Amino acid sequence: MTKAFFFTLCGMGVLSAQQAMAGISLSYTGTHGSQGYTGTNLGFSLDSTIGPYMEGGFNQSQSNTSPGTFKTYSGGLGIYRPGGSFGLSSSFTPKVEGYQALSIGLDARGRVLNWEDLGGFQASLGFRINRTTHQDDVQLVEEKKEGETRIRGETLSIHQNDITGNLRLQWRKVGSSLSLGLTQSLYDEDLAGNFLRECKVVKFEGILGALQGYSDRMVFAKISQDILPWLWTSASYNRVQYNLATASANSFNLEAGINWQSLEATLGYNTYVPSSGPSRKFIAIGAGLRF
């Protein structure tokens, strides 16, 4: 039933996009990092400046610390309006070494300020709620100590609810923007006492690589600046706190990109610094095409 919902979501988006499609975008990003990390992300979108949109993606990642290669399929649809947007999304990670995940989310954004007399200064507020069901057939032999594992008697399901609020300030005249966000994770079940392994694949906005762990709270800040009409740069910071024994971390990310007619290209460098253990570095190169 959950898989059917995911593919129905994508199919509904095709119908909506046909009604007011203004463009098609295709993208590719390749990421390499510490601990043998490699990641690939493919994306597409059918959208319009005002009206319905649809998007989909495929992500694949692996590292020396993951039990295998994880693949995630995602899709979303929504609608843009002059004062904001609303959307639904879903993603599915098939089972690898006993772990799989399914998520369903909704998000909304609305403009609260629009001062054209100040060079197009705008402020908008966003809200997102995302529910992820983690299922794991494997447990730790010793609680809160990653290492030796064994097969569970029955599959354990953990339900994670991520609630995100964010603020975006944009000054179009000078090409500057500031984004601030906070995500709090709430769980239906008690995590302690279940001999849980770390969640095997988790992605955060502003962090280039996929990570492992059951998140507790994440703070995000990003500054973007247009250097030329076709060149932009950004710098972002994340503070991530986890449940169980996973170490909290600070993340610093720098990115630059070009938009030249229908072509896009991006370059990103990310340093992820946990409170204990070695830091990790990621480099990502992306390309896109709009038509």
Summarize, please.
This protein has 291 residues and is mainly beta. The protein is built from 1 helix and 14 strands, in the order αββββββββββββββ. The protein has one helix at residues 2-19, and strands spanning 23-33, 37-47, 51-62, 70-81, 84-96, 99-115, 121-140, 149-171, 176-187, 215-228, 231-242, 249-260, 263-274, 280-290.
Could you walk me through the main structural features you see in this protein, from its secondary elements to its overall organization?
- The chain is mainly beta and 291 residues long.
- It has one domain: Lipocalin.
- It is built from one helix and 14 strands; from the N terminus they run αββββββββββββββ.
- It has a 14-stranded antiparallel β-barrel.
- β2 and β3 form a beta hairpin.
- The model is unreliable at 1-21 (pLDDT under 50).
Count of individual helical segments: 1
Strands side by side in the biggest sheet: 1-2-3-4-5-6-7-8-9-10-11-12-13-14
CATH class assignment: Mainly Beta
Structure classification: mainly beta
Mean pLDDT: 90
Low-pLDDT residue intervals, each spanning 5 or more residues: 1-21
How many domains? The number is 1
Rg to the nearest angstrom?
20 Å
Largest sheet: 14 strands, antiparallel, barrel
Q: Could you state the order of secondary-structure elements as H and E?
A: HEEEEEEEEEEEEEE
Got a strand count?
14
Give the termini separation.
35 Å
Q: What general form does the structure show?
A: globular
Percentage of residues in DSSP E strands: over 45%
Examine the coordinates and then state which fold CATH places here, giving the name of the CATH topology.
Lipocalin
Tell me the CATH architecture. Beta Barrel
Helix content: under 10%
Oligomeric composition of the shown chains: single chain
